[in-house]
Every structure is written in C-alpha cells, then in structure tokens.
Design goal:
The protein is built from one helix and 13 strands, in the order H-E-E-E-E-E-E-E-E-E-E-E-E-E. By secondary structure, the chain is mainly beta.
C-alpha cells in the first residue's frame, strides 16, 4: 500500500509539472494613425490571433474593448512586427460583448492600459504589453510602454507614476 501511494503521488507530480502554461510573450506598442497598436516583437514566430483585447490596468471592472474570431473564419496570422490597431476590427472578427465587462473603453491621458493578443489555437498563448498615455510638448499623444528591467521588475512610465505607489526611482521607455 505504501508503494502504491508513492507511485500515485509520483505520477500526479510528473503530470502536474509536464503541463504547458503556454507562450507568454511581451508585445510592442506602436502608433498607427494616431492610435495605439499592439505588435509582435521582431524575433517572434508567426502567431494566429483568436482574441484581441485592450482594457485599463490597475482598476477593478475596467472598461474594455475586445474582438474575437467568428466561427468558421480563418484567424489573422501576424508575422514578426505585425500589428493590430485599437478600434479596428480585422476581417473575420466581431466585437466581443460577452468578454468585455466594464463600460466602453475611452482612452485617457495618465492612465495605464494592457493590450493583449490571445492565440487562436491555444488560449494560453498570449502576447501582451502594458502602456500609459501622455501628451508630449506638441500636444500629440504618446503611448509609453512599461519595460522590464534586470530581475523582471516592472518599470512604470512617468505619466502613470502618480497612480502607482510602487514606482522605481528611474524610468525606462520603449522608444
């Protein structure tokens, strides 16, 4: 009986550690037609997109925008550096009313947002980027991506520093 219990525990442990958690990639943020866009990094492999979402970060029940692949359609195949623009619905996708729980999303200055691409064939595969919005000296919008520094610490852009108490003493931007 002792050996049977050992083997059952061992098999459960092996299976639990063999489970894949999927791809968790860090996306890039770009400006296309004065709107934020989420883009694959230049070293990414082609990525089949099943769902696209943008929501405010650091708040409960945030407003959101999301689109999902419609049944029977082929997913958008993004290549390295390929982008999806906020507010633009790719062919074969529809606004996803069921996944967006808060108010409609209005982008505002000095707020943080998370832009995410989820895989069409594996929902665990994602690329995401957190960014905030500020106006530059010419009153144009800038979309500043949060970067990770050594040790995987998240660095908060200066335009969101007042809303987050865990701000580091220095800032890094993805230019």
């Amino acid at each position: 009986m002792k050996y049977l219990s050992f083997w059952i525990c061992w098999l459960l442990w092996i299976n639990a550690h063999a489970t894949s958690f999927g791809l968790k990639g860090e996306a890039k943020i770009a400006i296309i037609d004065d709107k934020p866009a989420v883009c694959l990094p230049d070293d990414a492999k082609a990525f089949s997109v099943g769902w696209i979402s943008l929501s405010e970060s650091y708040v409960r029940s945030p407003g959101g925008w999301g689109v999902a692949l419609k049944d029977g359609f082929k997913p958008l195949e993004l290549k390295p550096e390929g982008c999806v623009v906020f507010g633009e619905i790719p062919e074969g996708y529809a606004f996803n009313h069921f996944e967006v729980t808060g108010d409609p999303l209005r982008l505002e200055v000095n707020r943080a947002y998370i832009f995410r691409l989820s895989g069409a064939y594996s929902k665990r595969d994602t690329y995401s980027a957190v960014f905030c919005i500020r106006r530059n000296v010419d009153s144009a919008f800038e979309y500043l991506k949060y970067n990770r520094s050594a040790g995987d610490v998240e660095v908060v852009p200066v335009c969101d520093a007042g809303r987050n108490e865990n701000v580091l003493d220095y800032y890094m931007f993805d230019n």
